[in-house]
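Help! Submission page says 'invalid entity' but I think these are all valid:
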Amino acid sequence: MSFSPLIVQLMDSLQCLPGVGPKSAQRMMLHLLERDRKGAFKLSEALQQAAEKVGHCQRCRTLTESDICEICSDPRRDAGLVCVVETPADVLAIEQAGGFKGHYFVLMGHLSPIDGIGPEDIGIDQLLAQVEGDEVQEVILATNPTVEGEATAHYIAASLRKLGVKVSRIAHGVPLGGELEYIDGGTLMHAFAGRRELVD
Amino acid sequence: MSFSPLIVQLMDSLQCLPGVGPKSAQRMMLHLLERDRKGAFKLSEALQQAAEKVGHCQRCRTLTESDICEICSDPRRDAGLVCVVETPADVLAIEQAGGFKGHYFVLMGHLSPIDGIGPEDIGIDQLLAQVEGDEVQEVILATNPTVEGEATAHYIAASLRKLGVKVSRIAHGVPLGGELEYIDGGTLMHAFAGRRELVD
Ligand SMILES: [Zn+2]
Ligand SMILES: [Zn+2]
């Protein structure tokens, strides 16, 4: 014996979610069915709507249900400055930090030859076409400081340089408020390599 | 700026789930929309079906989409022995331990005067009516060994004794403060074997 078929189906489906195993799925099922049916219907509807309607911005590739996302269609933002990131979550992080008022280009991943993910899979042709066609002054590469993120940044930088556009990489180093003794060696080496002269 | 409306709605709805905060909701949203749309549709459908069709067994009150659950309608099980538990998860834990071949009665909670949960809310009238009407020989109280679970067990024991039925409480092995659904099968079986009749 176990739970009834619809309950088993619900617990199985909840395990599609990252970080949700059998025990959490059971806890979620009991919570929804015993205490929050309204939440269950709401989540069902939200999943269906999003999975059906959310696509990618035709310009920056971020996730959105519009053809062109809110940022790309905002006339107050500087289309001459494009920040390249790996995921929509990176866009959100940068927006929440405030200060950047240019456009984005969202790779939706990074180069990973071992997984068969090449330049065309992360939209690099599209990025090059946009830089070539529009008046882009600078492309800021903000891929993650991981092996794949660095490789992706280098590949994009090499491709863009042929177009004569300015290409920069966000600085990596000791985070503000961080204490040197707790920072990993790789980050410290980045911080040293990226040192800048202090001038008055 | 943040995510588009349908994405925000999805992240909000995911936070209906216990243990899911803004960060996990974002991670789940990205996973579903970037890598597992099929999973999103499947989960949407499973939620809708379960929230719409799952009710309570008319006999034992457990969660099921049938009028009478699988256990209650199994002629091989002993209807003369009824185990009272707090939740459907407890039924599953006892079934997985194996060995118990009676029926269950699922309170779907416990007495909690502070939350306004009285005997009628946990189906005690229904339990008494069943014990009175059927040939029940023994009722095993397997509520959790918590303050509320103990209070609930004592209340039920007092009510049942008036009907002259044998009442026992599982005893050995279940650690105080522990919750039944997280106890291993061997310990649970010890608890059943070591049950003692409650006498005043
Ligand atoms: Zn866009
Ligand atoms: Zn039943």
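Support: the input was valid. A stray whitespace character was the problem, and the output above is from the cleaned input. Residues 111 and 121 of chain A are 8 Å apart (CA to CA).
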